[in-house]
Amino acid sequence: MPRAGSLAATGDPWEPYRLLDSSGEPVAAVAAYFGELQAAGRPATTLRSYGMALLRWFRFLWAVEIVWREATRIEARDFSRWIQIGTKPVRPHWRAPDKPVVMEPKRVNAVTGKRPAGDKYAPSTIAHCETVLRSFYGFHLDAGTGPLVNPFPLARAKRAHAHHNPMDQFEPQRAGLYRPRQPKRIPRQIPDEVFNDLFARLSSDRDRALVAFWVSTGARAAELLGVMRSGAEPGQQLITVVRKGSRAMQQLPASPDAFVWLRLY
């Protein structure tokens, strides 16, 4: 797939990211969609994630010479086949952009057992791409600026809640027609002795407190770095973080050792 166009960070709070075509001109349809996401309270990181998915789709359309308004289920089907079977484009090194890139074989991490990413798109990336494109065309379908039929439709619904347990909540049944099934992943982990060695190598009580809170609460590192002094309650062993997606304040239980390192810091 030709590496046409790019997703550029602007530094402008009104337009954090901008999708550019091969000539360097912004894609107006994506700019309008980004404005809708920003109005709905989506952070700039979400715009970047959605922009990467849209960049893959527009590169496919530019390769097959189809205008995005004229895309049909045929193009959506072929794109879904390509992203599942094809290989990821190799990004050249910034020091030598014209030099061909030689891919070295990757090995399984001997410590954590994590497998290399490989040259194929991950199932989570494919599913995220389908969700973004269905939302993108749904927005333009409602605004009257896109095709009359969404190229990424929902799958035909089966019998709605045929064997539903009345004690359970109703869950959405329909998914994207071209959305692959997600395999269940094994949680990431490292051996205890490796973690103890890592913890012993930390040079300050602040880092020890952060790592202890990170392991015991399961919160993101960015969420822990934003904790205020008033957010720690050692008496109840709770720490208050601001969630990344919802921006809501949530109290999380933490281990006593984490509060000991925080007190030492």
TrEMBL record:
<dbReference type="GO" id="GO:0003677">
    <property type="term" value="F:DNA binding"/>
</dbReference>
<keyword id="KW-0233">DNA recombination</keyword>
<dbReference type="GO" id="GO:0015074">
    <property type="term" value="P:DNA integration"/>
</dbReference>
<dbReference type="GO" id="GO:0006310">
    <property type="term" value="P:DNA recombination"/>
</dbReference>
<dbReference type="InterPro" id="IPR010998">
    <property type="entry name" value="Integrase_recombinase_N"/>
</dbReference>
<feature type="domain" description="Tyr recombinase">
    <location>
        <begin position="185"/>
        <end position="265"/>
    </location>
</feature>
<protein>
    <recommendedName>
        <fullName>Tyr recombinase domain-containing protein</fullName>
    </recommendedName>
</protein>
<dbReference type="InterPro" id="IPR002104">
    <property type="entry name" value="Integrase_catalytic"/>
</dbReference>
<dbReference type="InterPro" id="IPR013762">
    <property type="entry name" value="Integrase-like_cat_sf"/>
</dbReference>
<dbReference type="InterPro" id="IPR011010">
    <property type="entry name" value="DNA_brk_join_enz"/>
</dbReference>
<keyword id="KW-0238">DNA-binding</keyword>
